[in-house]
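Mods, move this if it's the wrong board.
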Amino acid sequence: MRTQRTIIGSASAALAAALVLAGCSTSSDEADLENAGHGESGETAAEDAEELDAPAPRLVTTYDGGIMTLDAQTLEVIDDTKLEGFNRVNPVGDSRHVMVSVAEGFRLFDAGTWSEQHGDHAHSYASAPALTDTVFETDTPGHVVRHGGSTVLFGDGDGKIQTFDTESFAGGAPDPQVSQAEEPHHGVAVKLEDGSILHTIGTEEERSGAKVVDAEGKEIARSEDCPGVHGEAAAEGEAIALGCEDGILLYTDGKFSKVDAEDDYGRIGNQAGSDESPVVLGDYKVDEDAELERPSRISLTDTAAGTMQLVDLGSSYSFRSLGRGPDGEALVLGTDGTLKVIDPDSGDIDEEYPVIDEWEEPVDWQQARPTLFVQGEKAYVSDPDKSELHIVDLGTGRVEKTAELPHPTDEVTGVTG
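Not the wrong board. Structure tokens:
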């Protein structure tokens, strides 16, 4: 089944439909295609590429009305792509492409930097970023998951699961393998290394757990012991963790197990995993009735031992505050303006690096707030109130670069080039 399509026309054909979803979902209008070069395919962009001496990592940031592409080392603005509405971005995982959630589905953005192997030598290239015409259609685009060489897209409005070999995006427009969740819901899916697919179970009104199907679509495992299931993270040894309203649901060694929260309502909805650690970093909320809870504790779930510990940070944080360092260290950007480095095994806060001023999480989840993004040994911290972006060296804790940008950033992601 081929679900990819090409957008025909220019700005006059732009979509006006807006998507409004709860939690971490997507709302966006279609792009203004009159931007020069932003209708290119990856193949066309490659024709104008410049060969570089080394890989050139880039950041892709959103703001109200567009997408900025930055040099990840200098924070220089390389490109400003106009795209009206509230935009969400997720890396494909191939070191070059990013998915942009739009009204029709997931639209492919070429960040314009990549490397190729030629014989014994790797060659790096750079071209102008391009919002391509390739859209992988779905109703209400949700999560994008990269794991084990695969990229999976989940459509909340139709339950469509689109699976790709991550490296197939080198050609710009691969065909997905398409499967379906049992019913549409705000969910997530991940392809495991044995070819099976784990995806959440739920409806528009209620989410209850997850199941795993093999490459032929046969169910091999199921658990409905995860009320309000939300988000996923992969830990060392391909342990998959899913957040619940009363703890964590784990999938390890072909079966599900549950790690209970210490509170009757102990919601974990956002997580960050690392291949370097069996421990998953998660948020932790206990007020079921709060319009916006400002938690000060995080959860550390050991997927090997099946245990959870809570760590009080001394400040609150938001759903865009969690990250992992190159050695698996847990990173949290607190509302006190510090980047906290936490030992995932002991729960000790090893370092607190001052980066920005104190801030408060806005009630509207779509409103910009300071955001943490980690790429390699660098942490990127945004400060939308000042339209600033900072680079923090995780080895020293030093803020090694600060740039004032033309727009206050909302989401921040990147490609390695």
